[in-house]
């Protein structure tokens, strides 16, 4: 049970301590100390159930079947989350709902069915030249200069 408490995040520790009627303010190590002290002092079965609930919410126990791994576009951990929760990436930001594999990893069989994007989205016109100015150096061109279309002239 103490390992479960030690694996909780700050927000989950705050929920647990608030549920137990304890002070939920402080740094993570302080909250962890309070939660472990609560556990050692003998907490009620309701608090123990709350610990298990928070742990299960943090680490879902759904097993991933081989068929789910084979389905493209299905993310197994996202499917195992309860409704209303979003999956977070390693940096704490919301992860995309279905990961896209690079075309090179899909193999030649799958490449034929994918629509190809044009490699050059903007037409390159030789009439557009960038003027060199003394206050900056051009290291490289990321996008070739293009003319504005007739409907975009100002």
What does this entry show, briefly?
The chain has 154 residues and is an all-alpha fold. The protein has helices spanning 2-6, 10-19, 28-40, 45-58, 66-70, 76-79, 103-106, 108-111.
Secondary-structure map with pairings?
Blueprint: H1 2-6, H2 10-19, H3 28-40, H4 45-58, H5 66-70, H6 76-79, H7 103-106, H8 108-111
Helix pairs in contact: 2-3
Description:
The chain has 154 residues and is an all-alpha fold. The protein has a domain at 2-58: Transcription Termination Factor Rho, Rna-binding Domain, Chain A, Domain 1 (Orthogonal Bundle), CATH 1.10.720. Helices cover 38% and strands 0% of the residues. It contains eight helices and no strands. The protein has helices at residues 2-6, 10-19, 28-40, 45-58, 66-70, 76-79, 103-106, 108-111. The longest helix is centred in the middle third of the chain and has 14 residues, at 45-58. It is rod-shaped. It starts with a helix and ends in a 43-residue tail after the last helix. It comes from Carassius auratus (Goldfish). Residues 5-39 form the SAP domain. GO terms for molecular function: SUMO ligase activity; transcription coregulator activity. InterPro entries: SAP_dom, SAP_dom_sf. This is E3 SUMO-protein ligase PIAS1-like.
Low-pLDDT segments, ≥5 res:
71-82, 84-106
Number of helices: 8
Q: Which whole number gives the mean pLDDT?
A: 69
Q: What is the CATH topology of one domain? A: Transcription Termination Factor Rho, Rna-binding Domain, Chain A, Domain 1
The fraction of residues in strands falls at under 5%
Task: State the end-to-end CA separation.
Answer: 68 Å
Q: Please tell me how large the radius of gyration is.
A: 27 Å
Structural class: mainly alpha
- CATH hierarchy: architecture of one domain: Orthogonal Bundle
């Amino acid at each position: 049970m103490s390992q479960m408490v030690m694996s909780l995040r700050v927000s989950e520790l705050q929920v647990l301590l608030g549920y137990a009627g304890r002070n939920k303010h402080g740094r993570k190590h302080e909250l962890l100390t309070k939660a472990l002290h609560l556990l050692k002092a003998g907490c009620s079965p309701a608090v123990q159930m709350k610990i298990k609930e928070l742990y299960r919410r943090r680490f879902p126990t759904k097993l991933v079947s081989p068929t789910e791994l084979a389905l493209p576009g299905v993310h197994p951990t996202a499917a195992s989350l309860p409704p209303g929760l979003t999956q977070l990436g390693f940096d704490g930001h919301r992860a995309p709902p279905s990961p896209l594999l690079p075309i090179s990893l899909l193999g030649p069989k799958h490449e034929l069915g994918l629509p190809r994007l044009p490699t050059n989205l903007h037409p390159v016109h030789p009439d557009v030249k960038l003027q060199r100015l003394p206050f900056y150096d051009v290291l490289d061109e990321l996008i070739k200069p293009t003319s504005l279309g007739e409907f975009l002239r100002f």
